[in-house]
Specification:
257 residues; alpha/beta; Rossmann fold; Alpha-Beta Plaits; 10 helices; 10 strands; 39% helix
Length: 257
Amino acid sequence: MQHLFSPDGEAALAAVMRLRPLMAFDFDGTLAPIVARPDDARISQAVGQRLRALAARLPVAIITGRSVADVRERLGFEPPFVIGNHGAEDPGDAAGTARRSAALAGLRDALQRQAGALAAAGVTVEDKGLSIAMHYRLSRERERAQALIAELLAPVQATLHVFGGKMVVNAMAADAPDKAHAVLSLVQRSGAAAAFFAGDDVNDESVFIAAPPHWLTLRIGRDDPGSRARFGLDGPQEMALLLERILALLVAADGRQ
């Protein structure tokens, strides 16, 4: 995967910024480094300051696997759009939110019955309302943890959307919107001519696949040769520099007007 800070990447970045795009970002692994305990995740001061400056110029969206309430506390500024639970939690869709949460009732019951076994296997369950994440990053027996998660999901998997991630298995309602749906919807709502989207995980691939040619998609981490993102960065440690370059492009464009 070609690095964004290459001649082709820099040209693509300049081209999309001329379109005044929606600027959409995943959170964990993109704006903030992946950490062992999800509650410890934070964005750096440098990233936060630049995002705040960017939001004053363009529509900014955070599209995350976390709940909306959770991620808002970690940003340090209020972006125009926050979509949670991998695209399923839109604050403007109360009816859909209630329906998608109810679809997880059977899994919640199963997880509660097996709470002791899950804890013994080192599995941490995170119920985010519209999705449930079963983390095994801290497990000392990851194969055992994964087998237990698979066993619990087997009776309900046909009625849910189940997908993996970085040391986590996620479950949500089968009809829940994904991140691609969220970005496409926000492009329409914001009136933007294009979108820039940065993400790092399996659930971000839906955006990479659905993106029209004039969008710019960016994978944080260039370790997946099968990713459909157009460009990559080596890790979230490069995000502050990227935001600085984006702001410089916007300032230069405004100066030419």
